[in-house]
Protein 1
Amino acid sequence: MARGRFNSKFAAVMAMAGSAVGLGNIWRFPYMVGEHGGAAFIIVYIACCLLVSLPIFFAESIIGKSTRTDTFGALETLAPKGRHVGYIAILASFIILSFYSVVGGWSFNYLIRSLGASFDGLGISEAKEVFASVGSSPVESVSCMLVFLGLTAMIVVAGVDKGIGRFSKISIPVLFVMVVIIAGVSLSLPGAEKGVEYLVRPDFGKLDGPAIAAALGQSFFSLSLGVGCILTYSSYMKEEDSVLQAGGWTALFDTLFAIIAGFAIMPAVFAAGIEPAAGPSLVFETLPVIFSRMGVVLPIIFFLAILIAALSSSISMLEVVVAWMVDRKGIARKYAVLIVFAAAAVLGGICATIPSVFGACDFISSNVLMMIGALGFALIVGWKMPREEVLSLVRSPFIYRLIRYVTPIMIIAIAVTNLL
Ligand code: TRP
């Protein structure tokens, strides 16, 4: 059966950027920057991207592009003894898809609420009550999760180029424009300077070990590494498209997006005189209140942006599992999507109703499974594949050495720091 393929370099890069740009950029990065020393943290973050995460990205991309198959099949071809790492990566993708869909469902829920102008005149404590009721109502959170997962499945079932590629080519540029608009409004508010200061004032004194580990972990999650998303998408790249360019553009876009998201969020938070937070409480409690003070349109743009960012990431997780079923098991794409949809609906439903399961899924996938996957990919490219083959794809002995020596050590270092 003919495999799917992205029909243009633009589609491939937008799909990878879509996978990378997600909730991680919006709800974790801005807060981390403020907590860990502003511009000083941004410099360390960029260094981590260039020296560790981007080489792992290249490693995944090299594996995908040279084997042209799914995550498990690729590892079976290159390193038969390490093929089980392929299962770990696919499992991680599936688990992340399940709990990510719960948050995607909240975004959908909040988009509908903002279309009904339901945050108009709301205070922070009322917003907290709204979020608590959304989270604690099984019917509401499960049904919204199913809608989000259903949208994800609809895009993936349409195929690699016609579904994922087309969705990404349109939605990622639109997403970028939306965040720039929000940043423009946010920066024009009286008192916005304090938010800008929070993001940029360099404080090198805050760059301790945990700050550096946080930067590394964040750059990993943000570039969707270790679970086969980049590997699978790269297996659909055109022969003449370069692995180096795709990775470079994706990392640039992802970092730029994270920084602009910071300028969209923090100036508004400070202008409202609120203490910044991270995670769900920032996106679903603080921001709806602040943005709805600026009219009914801004919350709509904001939640639509979050929904698109989440969808363009969730399709990459679903595609990892679907590609394995299509390439290895010979299952037709539409049935593969249906099977994974049903399975993720079950785990997502459990995550939506039992917070401790949600937390456990997040912890195991980001701290254990992703790390095993990333280490496996780096070791295979650095030590198992012929040097000439790797160099023919990355054309730089320096990058080859980073993949071979630096990344495995750094992956083990973050894994140990995170688990301690
Ligand atoms: N990178 C996305 C974000 O920042 C999330 C994501 C997509 C992801 N695919 C992934 C995270 C694979 C880890 C692994 O939100």
Protein 2
Amino acid sequence: MAFSLPDLPYAFDALEPHIDEQTMRIHHGKHHAAYVSKVNDAVKGTEHENKSIEDLLRGIDQVPDDIRTTVRNNGGGHANHSLFWQIMSPDGGGEPSGALGDEIDRVFGSFSDFRDQFKSAATGQFGSGWAWLGLDENGKLHAHSTPNQDSPLMQGHTPILGVDVWEHAYYLKYQNKRPDYVDAWWNVVNWREVEKRFEQARG
Ligand code: MN
């Protein structure tokens, strides 16, 4: 099969109390697993089944019409969640340092200003979607949101941090209180991983 569900790099209950164990089990084992299964079914027997998920999404316009929407939604879901698990950690929280910390200060004014903008992107996304920090097509750091499972890779961007604001990511613990979930989520952000992705993306 083209793509597989990655293991979490920590236990299902490791992000408690900020993200609860039951949410993590369902989110990874049911939602993410379903995206993997559906994108695999879509690309099976095509030239696209041997591509990386990143190349598949960057080249979404080359995917045939009859499977493009399925690949967009489920391939996007696979890529987005694969990043999401990696940029969280039970040892997370705090602030970015090094080159990323400097660039956030330069672009957004301060880490606090960045958090405000990112939270606005997350809470302002109507319905399901994601908020992102990443490099745009010109290599400039920016915060933005995408609807559904649309991946920034499809826009020629490189995401380095993302928060899932689908209700399945928070409803069991936070119900309708998406802003409270985003506030708590900062406590599990793995800035060392985000810094690494920034440095790789910047080249
Ligand atoms: Mn999700």
